[in-house]
Design brief:
907 residues, mainly alpha, two-stranded antiparallel ribbon, transmembrane helix
């Protein structure tokens, strides 16, 4: 039992909660269907010119290696702590400078100092070393004067030194190519830097202009869209309130009833028309019936006398014996005289004026509501226009500032870029020629080494008169020439390379690396301290507070740094977030505009003024008149008596069809005196039938159609969708009483609820727009991606296209200089070996040659007169053959020398 009680109580609780929730949902359903404003989106398509695409054209590995080398010499923090102090607008020496504490600085840059010291030493000693080598060779040493014979291992030395010099020269080719290519790339980058800068300025201005247009679109155009919808909403407010009140109270039934009463004269005319049509149908049907009986009698007589098969067939097919008005009794149609008289009495009574008084009461109520709303609409619209003007002022202020920045950027940039173009065109060519000169020197040295190797390896030995131009002696001279050029230019090229190394390292670390990682870079942090954007923002914030701007500043000032700005741009944040504009223009304070400019106040005043008074829709006299209408003869109108007793088939067959068939049969009746009479009779009856169809049947069909249409329409007008006219009037009377009761009891609350919903919808529309402004400003307007693309394009144009080739140039030059050092040694050694004209003769001849060389050194003639020239040329021709045969013959045991040529010196 307890279980049953508990279950029953739980069921009731669930039912109660369901009803309460259903009532809550029904109450929560909005009364007015307020349309939400659909704001147009800003979708302007902009094409930017800056590009961060870059093609190293085969030099990327060299640039990467060069940057890795620079990283070995430069620390992540290039300036140790304590050496400089950066304050706003000033840079001062740090405490370590005043204390002469240079240890940390030397410790960090010892590698660069060591390289610089070594380069300075090399710059100083290389000319001295070249001079010493030159003097040594002039005095016959250092390979300046060599034996004509190879020593025992000279062939092996030539091979090894030649291979080493080939390796050195092959590696030198890379350095020379790098020098030429990077010098050309660097010149191309310098010549196009202003073009990239112009693209950057153009894109920055275009970005500012687009941002300005976006601000104007959101703060001006979108607000105009909102304002137009709000004005339309206010304009339709009274009609919407009245319409909803009528629908809720069903007071529109009074209007429907009044319209029906106003149509009573028309109903009377329709009834009279129906009465007339009914009378005409009765008369016409009687005439038709009489005529058809005569035709039927004549046709039966003639067709029976005819006796042909066709006559019998016509009589059977069209049932001539039953030719009549299809059995319709038009006398059964109702008489509308009493209904017409009843309608006439209603028309002449005070029914219309009584209902009209109720209609006037409702119209007065509507006019009061309408006037109340219309009187307050201008105030709400004025407050809305003031808010729009304030928002437009903010838009104009922001767009004007952005336009000024864009104009200033353009006016102050292009003229400087034009000046830069002039300087680049005038002076950059000298730098290019200087690099080209250094590269050409390197190429000249390379060519001398290459020709020296080619002649030394592929050429013949030098043998005096008639030597080839590319023999080994020429190869030796090419090598000595390359060594001489190296000594003459080494110091200058090294000095240029050292200066380029220092400048390139400083530029790459101070500019390129800082720009690529601004958030964590020491130099950028020093720039932040030097510029101090926070101080600038503090001044702007103070100006904004004093200027009584439409938008207030934020409560707390957020610090800002250049690194944060660049990183925010990289993340494609809006200009509002990137520059932290809330420090002096807080867009969220736009939420206070409706309250500040009186929109909320005027809407509340409108809500308080919209009220309705009690009404009496129907007086007792009007009620009695309506009851009299209910009891009128209109209740006796029965549309079924017309629709059931009327048909469009007046005759069973169309009379014209029968007449045509009779004419056809008459034409086929055989000739004869009696048959001719039958033929004439058939044609006469056919003529009668055609006349009846045209003059009687067709008008009866038209009258029937009109009568059915009038009866159906009248039935619809009288019943209003109810089973009967009296039921419809009872329902009208009940609904009008309920409407009067609803307006008097619940009308005030309902109107207040509708007004509250109107005001709430109006307010929500405004705040939805404000939220759109805040959302667009913080997340959509002025996305900074294009500016970061400009930033990246500047880095590419300066660092990738100028700094990287600049560092690649000195890297290629240094590579060549390092290879010059072993090349000097290999070149001097090989030049000496290439000058020897005879192969290794053996140890005995070598010792004899050495002795002869020492004994005959004092017998060298100092001069030769002109008379001995011819003899010298002849001797040179005789000795032009290979002397190795003599030495080989002398060294052989079977050779017997002429005593005249024996050496007389004591052994």
């Amino acid at each position: 039992m307890a279980t049953m009680i508990t279950s029953r109580g739980l069921s009731r609780l669930v039912l109660l909660l369901t009803l309460v929730f259903g009532a809550f949902v029904a109450q929560a359903e909005p009364i007015l269907k307020i349309r939400t404003t659909e704001f147009t989106r800003f979708n302007e398509v902009v094409e930017f010119q800056s590009s961060k695409s870059y093609n190293a054209r085969g030099m990327a590995p060299l640039y990467e290696i060069t940057n890795r080398v620079i990283d070995l010499f430069v620390d992540e923090n290039p300036i140790p702590d304590g050496y400089i102090t950066v304050q706003e607008g000033a840079i001062a020496p740090g405490p370590n400078v005043s204390d002469n504490n240079w240890g940390p600085l030397l410790k960090q840059y010892w590698a660069i100092l060591l390289v610089a010291a070594l380069c300075i030493v090399m710059i100083a000693i290389m000319p001295i070393m070249g001079l010493c080598l030159c003097c040594c060779r002039c005095f016959g040493g250092c390979g300046g004067r060599s034996q004509p014979f190879d020593k025992k291992h000279d062939t092996c030395r030539r091979a090894i030194l030649g291979f080493l010099l080939i390796c050195s020269t092959s590696a030198l080719v890379f350095g020379v190519v790098v020098a030429f290519v990077t010098n050309s790339y660097m010149q191309h980058g310098v010549e196009n830097i202003t073009t990239s800068a112009r693209h950057s300025v153009h894109d920055t201005r275009l970005y500012l202009q687009t941002t300005s247009s976006h601000i104007d679109h959101v703060l001006n155009k979108n607000y105009q869209e909102l304002n137009n919808d709000l004005k339309q909403l206010l304009h339709d407010a009274s009609d919407n309130i009245i319409k909803r009140l009528e629908n809720e109270s069903k007071a529109e039934k009074l209007t429907t009833l009044y319209e029906f009463v106003e149509k009573l004269p028309g109903i009377k005319e329709s009834l009279e028309k129906m009465k007339q049509l009914t009378s005409e149908l009765r008369i016409t049907a009687s005439q038709l019936n009489d005529g058809l009986r005569g035709v039927k009698r004549e046709l039966l007589t003639s067709l029976n006398k005819c006796g042909t098969q066709e006559c019998i067939k016509v009589m059977d097919d069209y049932k001539i014996g039953r030719l009549n008005v299809n059995g319709i009794d038009y006398n059964s149609l109702p008489d509308l005289s009493q209904i017409i008289e009843s309608v006439k009495q209603l028309t002449d009574s005070s029914l219309g004026s009584a209902i009209h008084q109720g209609v006037d009461q409702m119209n007065e109520l509507k006019d009061t509501l309408r006037q109340t709303v219309l009187q307050n609409i201008p105030k709400v619209q004025a407050a809305s226009d003031s808010t729009g003007k304030a928002i437009k002022d903010v838009s104009n202020m922001l767009t004007t500032r952005l336009s000024n920045v864009a104009d200033t950027l353009g006016n102050n940039s292009y003229k400087h870029l034009d000046t830069a173009d002039e300087y680049i065109e005038q002076y950059s060519i000298y730098r290019y020629y200087a690099g080209l000169g250094i590269s050409s020197v390197l190429l000249l040295i390379l060519m001398c080494l290459v020709f020296g190797l080619l002649c030394g390896i592929c050429g013949k030995r030098p043998d005096g008169y008639g030597d080839d131009c590319c023999n080994k002696g020429a190869g030796g001279r090419f090598l000595i020439f390359s060594v001489a050029i190296i000594f003459l230019t080494f110091s200058v090229i090294l000095a240029v390379a050292l200066a380029s190394f220092l400048v390139g390292t400083l530029t790459r670390r101070a500019a390129c690396d800082s720009l690529r990682d601004p958030a964590n870079d020491q130099i950028i942090s020093y720039v932040d301290q030097f510029v101090d954007l926070n101080r600038l923002y503090s001044d702007l914030r103070a100006q904004a507070e004093r200027s009584r701007a439409k938008l207030q500043v934020s409560e707390n000032m957020e610090p800002i740094t250049i690194g944060e700005v660049i990183v925010a741009c990289q993340q494609n944040e809006t200009i509002y977030k990137v520059l932290k504009l809330n420090n002096f223009i807080d867009i969220r304070t736009i939420r206070d505009f409706p309250e500040h400019y009186g929109i909320s106040r005027e809407l509340e005043a409108l809500k308080e003024k919209i009220k309705i008074q009690s009404v009496q829709i129907l007086t007792p006299e009007a009620t009695e008149d309506i009851k009299a209408l209910r009891e009128s003869k209109l209740n006796d109108f029965d549309v079924d008596k017309f629709t059931d007793n009327l048909t469009f088939n007046i005759t069973e067959y169309n009379l014209n069809e029968i007449a045509d068939k009779l004419r056809e049969v008459a034409n086929r009746v055989p000739s004869g005196k009696e048959m001719n009479d039958i033929k004439v009779n058939l044609k006469n009856q056919a003529l009668h039938l055609s006349s009846y169809q045209t003059n009687l049947v067709d008008p009866m069909i038209a009258s029937t159609n009109e009568l059915i249409k009038l009866s159906t329409t009248l039935d619809t007008s009288l019943k209003f969708g109810e089973p009967s006219f009296s039921a419809a009037i009872d329902k009208f009377l009940k609904q009008i009483k309920e409407a009067e009761e609803y307006i008097n009891k619940n009308g005030k609350t309902f109107v207040q609820n509708v007004t509250e919903e109107l005001v709430t919808g109006f307010t929500n529309q405004i705040y939805s727009y404000i939220n759109l402004v805040i959302e667009s400003t913080e997340n959509d307007i002025g996305l900074c991606g294009p500016v970061y693309n400009v930033y990246e394009s500047v880095i590419v144009a300066s660092c990738n296209r100028i700094v990287d080739p600049f560092n690649g140039f000195w890297a290629g030059v240094v590579w060549c200089l390092l290879l010059f050092l072993p090349s000097i040694i290999f070149g001097v050694k090989l030049s000496t070996l290439y000058q020897k004209s005879d192969p290794y003769p053996g140890p005995m001849v070598e010792s004899e040659y050495l002795y002869d060389a020492y004994t005959e050194r004092d017998n060298i003639p100092l001069a030769s007169g002109p008379k001995n020239k011819r003899r010298k040329k002849q001797d040179r021709r005789r000795e032009s053959r290979d002397r190795r045969e003599i030495y080989y013959e002398e060294g052989s045991p079977s050779h017997s020398r002429d005593p005249r040529y024996n050496d007389m010196a004591p052994k």
